[in-house]
Specification:
- By secondary structure, the chain is mostly helical.
- It has 3 domains: 108 residues; 89 residues, no CATH class; 43 residues.
- Helix content is 72%, strand content 0%.
- Helix 1 crosses helix 3, helix 6 crosses helix 8 and helix 9 runs antiparallel to helix 10.
- The longest helix has 38 residues.
- The chain is extended, with a radius of gyration of 29 Å.
- The protein starts with a helix and ends in a 5-residue tail after the last helix.
Length: 273
């Protein structure tokens, strides 16, 4: 069993690595290699420790996307042969991700409880900082923070703030920089709203999941119906004319279909001799 002091020392050393060096260390360990300084059991315990697990998970996901970089095409090797060689490599990384993902999910579950306990002002400040991509207070990692906010426990609370953010962005955004032009400010507001909309989409899935757990059938927003309502408010007469036109075309098509069926029945009747 790995010694606690050895694990702590390994965590400290790994924490000081830049992202690429850390990812290389993770891939090396998962694929059976060692770094020559730390026993495999010690390094494995360090990478799966709560303090490093979120970073380990991100490294594994990134490495999966860079599979060809870690497994470059060899001389005389076809792309199909390269893919066949990459497949078991990917499988090792995927198998290693499962237990690490469980640890990260547990951390997010615990952190969601902490967020739920915050008062409205503190929760709003924390959510605003997350939307603005500000550094997450240690020891929480950005990955755990994101998962916690998107949990059913606090998603609806965050979604309510999103609606305010979209309507009143200036209330949540930093003060404009001295001399900032109107156009630059509008661009900052647009980017802010885009980030809010992106996060709101994640929150919607979490809320629907919570509804489903309580036996209610969640439904996706009907964008066509929403657009139709807006059109009706802005141009009621035009919408009414379009509805009458469509209904008239529908009745005409139905009458034509009835005539065709009647003609077919008549044609199918035996002629009198």
């Amino acid at each position: 069993m790995a010694d606690a002091q050895q694990v702590a020392a390994a965590i400290k050393r790994l924490s000081q690595m830049d992202p690429d060096a850390f990812m290389d260390a993770v891939v090396r360990h998962v694929t059976g290699g060692t770094d020559g300084r730390t026993p495999r059991d010690v390094q494995g315990a360090a990478l799966a420790d709560r303090r490093l697990a979120p970073r380990t998970l991100v490294a594994l996901e990134t490495a999966m996307r860079r599979a060809k970089w870690y497994n470059p095409l060899r001389e005389g090797e076809s792309k199909r042969e390269q893919q066949a060689r990459i497949a078991p490599w990917r499988a090792k990384l995927k198998d290693a991700m499962g237990p690490i993902q469980d640890i990260v999910d547990d951390l997010a579950h615990e952190h969601a409880k902490e967020l739920a306990a915050l008062d409205d002002e503190a929760f709003t400040d924390r959510w605003t900082a997350f939307v603005l991509d500000e550094p997450v207070p240690p020891p929480t990692s950005p990955r755990v923070e994101a998962l916690a906010f998107r949990s059913p426990r606090v998603a609806k609370r965050a979604a309510d703030i999103c609606r305010l953010m979209f309507k009143e962005p200036a209330r949540f955004m930093p003060e404009p920089a001295p001399g900032e032009s109107r156009k630059a400010r509008e661009e900052h507001v647009e980017r802010f709203r885009q980030r809010v909309a992106s996060e709101a989409a994640f929150l919607r899935y979490a809320i629907q999941y919570a509804e489903a757990r309580h036996g209610r059938m969640p439904s996706e927003p009907n964008h066509r119906l929403q657009a139709l309502k807006l059109l009706g408010k802005a141009h009621p007469q035009e919408l009414l004319q379009l509805l009458r036109q469509v209904r008239g075309e529908g009745r005409a098509a139905a009458q034509e279909a009835r005539r065709e069926r009647r003609d077919l029945r008549r044609a199918a009747r035996p002629r009198a001799r």
